[in-house]
């Protein structure tokens, strides 16, 4: 039976929880000035309830209650956060690697021939060391692909930075600064390439108009391949948590 953890009646919380089949699921809540009605969606970061600015939380919660069957049917079984730790199987550039502790106090993270990644240092420091290595690899690849697409489109990228966004793969400012999600290093290279092409194309078109998508396709003719992969696997990729 469904049950809800109640929030204050008038002011919407930043998140709420629903329970079904013995499983508690967190639903993020976003207030939108552009929203004209309640909307329940499943972006990569997890369930999201979008509500109009002037709506009452009680009405929004009732809407969520009416649509929990929709949520239960679409939410992957066993979906939940995945952590960086010894023994886990972690995708890097689309290939699965087992994470192991090297047992050495000093040294570098190493990719071994037998599809393992060896991380030095004390066990309690392994998640942070692995995370720092993943970010360095992501920054290298994303900087290179951003420069590649910028040259093709005749624009200039001023800076490339990494973030740990909960629901976005990237963002671009009109000044040429691009932020990317570090988790893109976990995806196959063609997916990272698609997101780089997408964000660089915003330096030509700061919107998602037909002209924008034509610009993405101009620099990356097979853009649909990466876009489709993210639609299918993005939620699972987003579940990997930074330490």
SSE layout and pairing:
Elements: E1 3-4, E2 15-20, E3 23-32, E4 39-41, E5 48-52, H1 57-66, H2 68-74, E6 82-83, E7 89-92, E8 95-101, E9 110-112, E10 116-119, H3 126-153, E11 159-163, E12 170-172, E13 177-181, H4 189-201, H5 210-219, H6 223-238, E14 240-241
Parallel strand pairs: 3-5, 6-14, 8-10, 11-13
Antiparallel strand pairs: 1-2, 2-3, 4-5, 7-8, 9-10, 12-13
Helix pairs in contact: 3-4, 4-5, 4-6
Properties at a glance:
243 residues; four-stranded mixed β-sheet; 6 helices; alpha/beta; 2 domains; 35% helix
What does this protein look like?
The structure is a single chain. This protein is of the alpha/beta class and 243 residues long. It has 2 domains: 3-74, no CATH class; 83-241, Metalloproteases ("zincins"), catalytic domain (Zincin-like, 2-Layer Sandwich). The chain has 6 helices and 14 strands. A 5-stranded mixed sheet has the order 1-2-3-5-4, with helices on one face. Strands 7-8-10-9 form a 4-stranded mixed sheet, with helices on one face. A 3-stranded mixed sheet has the order 11-13-12, covered by helices on one side. Strand 9 and strand 10 form a beta hairpin.
Shape: globular
Query: What value does the Rg take, in angstroms?
Result: 20 Å
CATH class placement of the largest domain: Alpha Beta
CATH homology superfamily name of the largest domain: Metalloproteases ("zincins"), catalytic domain
> Level of helix content?
25-40%
- Low-pLDDT parts are 1-9
**Into which percentage range does the β-strand content fall?**
25-35%
* Strand arrangement in the largest pleated sheet: 1-2-3-5-4
Round the mean pLDDT to the nearest integer and report it: 88
Name the helix and strand elements from N-terminus to C-terminus, one letter apiece: EEEEEHHEEEEEHEEEHHHE
Q: For the terminal residues, how far apart are their CA atoms?
A: 34 Å
> Total domains, how many?
2
* Main sheet makeup: 5 strands, mixed
Number of helices: 6
* Structural class by secondary-structure content: alpha/beta
How many beta-strand runs? Answer: 14
